[in-house]
Each structure stands twice: as structure tokens, then as C-alpha cells.
Amino acid sequence: MQKTIPNFDIEDSHKGKLVAGCDEAGRGPLCGPVVAAAVVFLTRNFSDMPLITDSKKMTAAARAKCVEWLAAQKAAGNLDFGIAECSAAEIDKMNILAASLEAMRRATMKLRAADFFLIDGNKTIPNLPCQAVVKGDSKSLSIAAASILAKETRDDIMKKLDAEFPMYGWAKNAGYPTAAHLAAIKKHGINGHFRKSYKPVKILMSS
Questions:
Q1: Looking at the whole model, is its pTM more than 0.85?
Q2: Which residues pair with 41 in a beta bridge?
Q3: Residue 3: what pLDDT?
């Protein structure tokens, strides 16, 4: 079966509209923010575009190459993107789904221009002209680009936090509930970067 390569078909189906793609990274981790990005391509004429696809299917080196290319194209005025986040405290307050959608909404607000939005997943953002696209990061080039920016930004955040709290191994596990991470939480406790509403954290807090 031939693999699907993200393209502009969904974007171009909204004729007369400037369409951006939105995605997030970090719904599953026990700590750190959920990070979202919104990307709008202002031109389709690229001769040097690297392979842009679902960030989870790419190597770290390939994602880094894409981030560098996206930044260069933004500087050249060929595309625009915005990146935003919701903190662990905000996730605890509003739940992870609402926080993910809010982070994406914040990312869209950082775009200079866009009048319609493609949202990865099966939920739309209230009061925003948008369309939900299930598995959008494997279909829409704009969503795929957003997924790469969101993941790389969040990974960088967790690496910086790891320098401050090296006992948790966040540079390696990015906050996900690996066995080593859970053992570290049990040994060292939690701090303000943890999502206290998440069940594994609740269990470890009460044990």
C-alpha cells in the first residue's frame, strides 16, 4: 500500500481562503506544557522543500532540517507560523483536550494573515472558522509542518527543563511515563512542571 504524502489538496479545496494548518505536541506526557503551532503557506512554489510529514514518523535530524527550512521560508515571506503553549497548571485547570485546543487557538493568533484553519484531530476550536481533519498530519502539508514545529519546540523546552531537573531524564523521555521516569518521580517527588490531574502523578503523589 502506497504511503500517503501530505499535500495541499485540503487547503486548496477551500477556494478563495488563506488556509493554515494547526497541530499540537505533548498531550500524553506527565509534565511540561502542551505546545501548538499554526502554519500558513503563502506560496506553493518551492524547489528545495524537504520531506514534510507526520512528525512522529520522522527522525530528529529530519525534523530539525524542516524547522530550519521553515524558519528560512518565514524570513523570506513565503510562509508564516505561530507557536504557543498551555502550561501544566493550565492543563490541570481546564483538562488536556481543552488546553490543546487553547494552545492551537493561541498559535493561530500569532499569524499575520489566515482566514480558515485546519485542525488536526476530530475537534474544532470554538469561534474559529475551521475544519477538523482526522490524521491531518499525514494528509495536509500545513498541518504536518505545524506538527514538526510543535514537537521540536516542545522537545527543546523539555531539554532546557532537564538541565534544571536532571533527575527525571526529561531530555530523553520528554515527560512521557516511561518506567525510569515513574521511578524517578517516586524517588524525587514532583514539582510545578508536573500535571497533577494526570492519574499516574496522582497515584505517585498519594503513595
A1: yes
A2: 79
A3: 57
